Amino acid sequence: MRKATAPTALLTTAFYAFYDLHRPAYHAYAAARLPPEEASVAVTHLFNLVAGNWTTIVTDPSPSAWAWTRYVRAVARRTGHTTTPAEDADLLHHTLHLSIDKIATITGTEPATVTALLLGRHRRASRRHSASRHPAGRA
Question: Could you give the CA distance from residue 32 to residue 121 in angstroms, rounded to a whole number?
Answer without folding.
Answer: 19
